[in-house]
Amino acid sequence: MSKRNIVITGGAGFIGSHVVRLFVNKYPEYNIINLDKLTYAGNLANLKDIEDKPNYKFVKMDICDFEAFCKLMQEERIDGIIHLAAESHVDRSIKDPFTFARTNVMGTLSLLQAAKLYWESLPEKYVGKLFYHISTDEVYGALTMNHPEGIEPPFTTTASSGGYHHAYGKDFFYEDTKYNPHSPYSASKASSDHFVRAFHDTYGMPTVVTNCSNNYGPYQFPEKLIPLFIHNICHRKPLPVYGKGENVRDWLFVEDHARAIDLIFHQGKVADTYNIGSFNEWKNIDIIKVVIRTVDRLLERREGEDMDLITYVTDRLGHDARYAIDSSKLQKELGWEPLYQFEEGIEKTVRWYLENQEWMDNITSGEYERYYDSMYNNR
Ligand code: NAD
Ligand code: TYD
Prior knowledge:
Layout: E1 5-9, H1 14-26, E2 31-36, E3 56-60, H2 66-76, E4 80-83, H3 90-95, H4 97-120, E5 130-136, E6 155-158, E7 164-167, H5 184-203, E8 207-212, E9 214-216, H6 225-234, E10 239-242, E11 248-253, H7 254-267, E12 273-276, E13 281-283, H8 284-298, E14 310-313, H9 328-334, H10 342-355, H11 357-364, H12 367-377
Parallel strand pairs: 1-2, 1-4, 2-3, 4-5, 5-8, 8-12, 9-11, 10-14
Antiparallel strand pairs: 6-7, 11-13
Helix pairs in contact: 1-7, 2-4, 4-5, 6-8, 8-10
The structure holds nicotinamide-adenine-dinucleotide and thymidine-5'-diphosphate (TYD).
């Protein structure tokens, strides 16, 4: 295996920390640089187990800082970029769309331009280089719940890969599905995807884009549905279900996403797009009930006794009805398969949050934010 110098942006966040951990442990011959601004969502405690490894380095940097990133590309002789840094929460994007345009669009463009300048200055130019952009299925918009005549959803249907969908509708997101983003978050991600593809088409930069479904697992910031609800159930706080809880999301265990990223980084076709998902659709209210039962059981409460915490609240503006990914292309072309069944993944996830209450308490008390601010801003 040859030596590589790779920047992973957003490595202190939820998915990024799993990708950093996987690469640092699996490829001791690579230099892995975790570049992260440490916004409210970034937390170096996510990487405690690998922070002392010789092939790992953390750099606190804003992806919008073009000059600083140009310098880093040169100094570290970067040949691969795996770009996860982003503002990632739809509710925040509804309140503050500007931050999303700045980080997700301008930040991505800044990385692309810096990579272009550096790689084009080398004798070998783009040979052996890759800009890998991590995106979301939300860029495709929303699907409907049109199910086959006479069959009540969720139903099982054969996917084009030969696998099965646990599905609420007949239509799915494919790699060639037209972009139709609705939220400021998904609009900003769609825009960044277009910039990445434009850098391939215009300058010949080797790029790849993947669009993944909703992730769940350890280290997810507790503003997202699953960790927020686990936290609230533990503390017997209300569980705010938007609208009727009928919206459908397609859930993938985060370690399976990280494995897909590893595979695509090494074997994906340049300029291509891959959808990542595990054919695992759930109505919000159903997944919430599974989470309540699992937390209750693991805390040795009566299973289901916390159902009365469910509180229906005003719906999210522009709330997308259904997301469902068809990942047959990735399965057929690169042989990726999710390792986790949903039941196993959710059990592992709930257990992790219950066993890592301190991690959760630090975030919810805002302590880690103050700690890292003082640690890095005063150097
Ligand atoms: P996250 O919010 O947990 O983490 C984002 C990370 O990016 C944080 O560490 C944050 O500090 C960092 N960051 C934010 N702005 C930055 C900036 N200007 N400069 C440098 N770093 C900055 O997000 P996540 O859920 O891990 O998502 C990671 C990526 O995967 C995002 O691009 C997201 O769009 C995409 N994605 C997420 C999901 C999901 O379900 N979470 C699904 C599909 C795709
Ligand atoms: P979220 O985890 O924010 O992911 P996304 O919006 O990217 O899909 O939300 C998942 C689903 O859960 C989404 O349909 C909105 C819903 N939701 C609630 O009903 N209540 C909540 O408090 C949150 C955070 C989400």
